[in-house]
Write a structure and sequence with these properties.
168 residues; two-stranded antiparallel sheet; 2 domains; alpha+beta; 6-stranded antiparallel β-sheet; 33% helix
Length: 168
């Protein structure tokens, strides 16, 4: 009986390897992407959405420390800041601006600029969704992996890299 159990384990192992190989090959060909989540965008023309209950997201208006990241500072006018931010995003590996719009904030005397960008990883083509809300003196930010549970800190580090680009 012990030999037949061992034989069954040996026979199933290559099949599992085949499944893993097919999944990896599919990801390489088609990319590990999906459609952007419905949670992107502003809530009531006021705030970026909160992070889901997964560690692969950071947002400047988070209520918990695990997801919190400071908003970015900027010193120029909103249009100059927008131009610089688009340049920084475009210069980063896999970075693409996918949406820009001017937003009239509730109870505010100024407009804000909303920018959505996607960053695609080089090898497996994983997509991270990143949002920016350029306000008068701050840039509110949110960045989240589209798939999976962990991003190994990639989204936080990407936003810190963008912060360094805005430092004097």
């Amino acid at each position: 009986m012990w030999q037949s159990e061992t034989l069954a384990i040996r026979c199933s192992f290559p099949r599992n390897k085949q499944r893993i190989a097919v999944i990896a090959f599919t990801c390489l060909l088609g990319g590990c992407t999906s459609s952007p989540p419905n949670s992107l965008g502003l809530i009531n023309n006021l705030n970026l959405a909160n992070c889901p209950d997964k560690p692969n997201c950071v947002v400047s208006n988070a209520d918990d420390l695990a997801h919190y990241i400071d908003a970015l500072d900027h010193s120029g006018d909103q249009q100059t800041t927008r131009d610089k931010l688009v340049d920084v995003i475009s210069s980063m590996e896999g970075g693409t601006v996918t949406l820009e719009e001017s937003v009239t904030m509730k109870n505010a005397k100024h407009n804000s600029i909303y920018i959505r960008a996607e960053f695609q990883s080089k090898w497996f083509k994983f997509v991270d969704d990143t949002e920016f809300l350029i306000e008068k003196e701050k840039i509110q930010v949110c960045s989240a992996a589209r798939l999976g549970r962990s991003d190994f800190g990639v989204n936080r580090e990407r936003l810190e890299s963008i912060r360094r680009a805005f430092s004097p």
